[in-house]
Fold each of these.
Amino acid sequence: MKRAGWCVVALAVGLAGCDDGSDGRVPAAEYGEVLFNDSRLSESSFNSFSCATCHSTTPTPPSGRMDSGYTLYDAAFRESWWGGFETRLLDAVNFCYVNFMRGVTPLPKDSPQSRALYEYLVSISPSPSAPARPFTVVKDVVDVTRGDVARGQQVYAEACQSCHGAPHTGEGRLTELASILPEVTDDYDTLFPGVPKSLVVIEKVRHGQFFGVGGNMPLYSLEALSDEDLGALLAFMGL
Ligand code: HEC
Ligand code: HEC
């Protein structure tokens, strides 16, 4: 019965494929993989992120990809998540779902979606236990040393471009809600008087939100983006 229920949900949100050729039902882990890759998991029309936007699923992230989130390979049985802040896997997932994907309410424990996502995460977690991953949030934002422009260009391509598109034009960006970089900073002296533009960008990257302004951009921990790479990125952006 449960599996039939998953199919109903899959059809309701317009996902293809409730037919595996046998009994017409999709196994939970497979449905979970579809949900993982589909921004329509969130009912918000302003959301264009899927889990896969920010998380890879291979043992090490593919080269050329610097994500804000860790790979979720072997994530299901980590001792804790979000640097020890979350002790239940579903809470760790719901943090992303609500804050980044604009999910209005957290996915309930027994919903077909959270069950399927769980089965999918288990299917890519061969180790029965795994240590928690370090996660260091930069609390107080301070300026960083500028680095190498060429390195900064690479960091932009690997960390920012998938959402923001090409520098200066935004070409290929994931959503029009993702601003054009670095041109969006042209207004910052008016919007944030007395604060150096670079510091506004650092605040945004480190916290995902900034100076009382919200947003759904993910935050970058020190593990996801070192201060050195951030300094190179700022140099590339001319800030
Ligand atoms: C906009 C980017 C973004 C999206 C979309 C997103 N996440 Fe995350 N997620 C993060 C960041 C950043 C973290 C914190 C760093 C980390 O722990 O991986 C995180 C953490 C996690 C963690 C904890 C990992 C750990 O070991 O600490 C899990 C599990 C997770 N996300 C699952 C999901 C799932 C499932 C979805 C889709 C429903 C999702 N995330 C969507 C960015 C995102
Ligand atoms: C997962 C998608 C995603 C990634 C990756 C991402 N951003 Fe964003 N970013 C957004 C979205 C969406 C917005 C607009 C909503 C908001 O402000 O959160 C935004 C907003 C911003 C803003 C604020 C623009 C304004 O309104 O003033 C800055 C600055 C920024 N991003 C810089 C970066 C930099 C630098 C990187 C790479 C280190 C990056 N972003 C990576 C999605 C992303």
Amino acid sequence: MSIDEIKKELASILNAVKTRIEMEKGFGIDTLTLSKPVTECSSRSAKSSTKNKPIEHSTTGKHPGDQTSVTGKGERIQILEALQNEMLVCHKCLLGKTRTHLVFGSGNPEAHLMFVGEAPGRDEDLQGEPFVGRAGQLLTKIIEAIGLKRSDVYIANVLKCRPPGNRNPLPEEIVLCMPYLLKQIEIIQPKVLCALGTFAAQTLLNTKAPVGTLRGRFHDYNGIPMMVTFHPAYLLRNPNDKAKVWEDMKKVRDFLGELSGKDSKR
Ligand code: SF4
């Protein structure tokens, strides 16, 4: 390797370190950890693996990719649009009467990482997009801190319409709305799910266990590894727990990195 090539390589490494420090600072983390970032390209082409990752609540024996026969991006977009059109006229629960906009979900229909939150808040209800308020801005930082862009992932909520006053979702609302989320997961076929907060975690895992005991490890959702972590809105109220979320998200980042590494050896 020539001197110029070494200089170039060093500059590239320093730049990567600088970017990571900036991301971690932006996310509110003081310590620096280094590992291979997940690139957009590698996260797209990853193959599934659960090696060295404890997966809990496995009940179906299914594996990622088993869920549906949907394959192409165009086909996924079409099916998602059809589902959105169906939901736009949904009044199965009373939230259909009080919403300003239905918040369907957004992101890459071929995302390998899909986030599931609780329900739209005021900003989301006004804009018809998930996670666009302060909590959404923090989620964007979290996504960028693991080396991805918002447009790389898919984001949806358990409920598609805002509960008035941002009250907690009611059990009957969750029961009525859940089929839509399940269909979204089936269409997108993420390699990894990330449940944000109590309602997403408890609903997808069918448990009453508190999020504090569920977070920090991968569970199994119909064969898809699912990380549980705190909701960004909770983090805004409890910034001291950002470090815990950062620990959780590093596991997601490393998992995706491991998948892309395995894929590159094929
Ligand atoms: S919250 Fe879900 S079930 Fe209730 S009206 Fe909205 S889309 Fe329909």
